[in-house]
Amino acid sequence: MRIAIFADLHGKLLLPFKLVDLYQQETGEKVDLILQCGDLGAYPDLKALDKATLKHARYDRDELGFHEDFVQEKATIKAYLQQLDLHMICVRGNHEDHDYLDALEQKSGKASRFPIDVYQRVWICKTGHIQTFRKGDKRLSFVGIGRIGDRKGRTAKRFIQEYERKQLASLFQTNEHFDILLSHDKDDASQRGYGMPEIRHTLDQVIFHYHFYGHTGEPFQCQIDSNGITTSCKIKELEFSEDGTLPKGCMIILHQTKEEDWELTVVPPSLTGKLTKTHWKD
Fold first, then answer.
1. Where is each Calcineurin-like phosphoesterase domain found (predicted)?
2. Rounded CA gap, 274 and 27, in Å?
């Protein structure tokens, strides 16, 4: 089983699919699933854009990619996604239409994740719910924590909500261990005064082999978490540099060679760089 991992799309929802397609063509290795660390830019209605997204959209139309390509069906995109036959499972970021996502989440009932696009290829996993993905005899187990943390007691929907905290608390009683913790924010151990305490608590209470997150703007890095068990990886945001290319560490491949045995590979810029800001949609 191979999993491709990305962070912070900000509207470029087609780009991970394009990169996986390129990776498969270049390497001959099949990818089975995409995981994504939030900030999709899931704004079906442009009236709901937050200030930051609206500001960036004025000079970068890619910020509106969800609205333009994933709300109303386009035959070419539908055919492309059907041919690729992949799903992308994500957590919420802070730059999303949370009213829209809340309505879909409530409608989904007891399901652990729910689709958010017209093609049903992009899914949001609910915070604290156990997720599984199977391919043949291989199995991936993971948990998502969406949105961001806050140290000021604010309750706006971009911040983790009380019902999500309660769901995480129930996870601590399971005594299970998982392959991946997927989040948008990082834990709150930073001296810079931000992060999510719920992530720190989860990593201290539950065993994960890997933790992947985005959001912070920091470079790609992997290191052993302070719990001494989890490999924690900051995935570089999927944003084009000034020269129009993608940065190192924006695409990760996790390969399961046998049960509970995973290998992590950083896809090199020599491959990701073949999709540039001006030509990635071609």
1. 1-216
2. 14
Residue found under tokens 């719990």: 227
Residue 1 and residue 29: Cα distance in Å, rounded? 10
Structure tokens at 247: 């940065």
Residue of 222, 206, 186, 19 lying closest to 91 (CA atoms):
186
Asked if residue 254 lies in contact with residue 210, where contact means CB atoms within 8 angstroms, the answer is yes
Q: Which residue has the tokens 């810079």?
A: 192
CB 155 within 8 A of CB 148: no
Tell me the whole-structure pTM to 2 decimals: 0.96
Structural domains of the chain ordered from first start: 2-272 (3.60.21.10)
Q: Which residues contact 85 (CB under 8 A, 6 or more apart)?
A: none
Q: Residues 217-229: pLDDT tens digits?
A: 999 999 999 999 9
In sign, the C-alpha dihedral spanning 95, 101, 105, 106 is positive
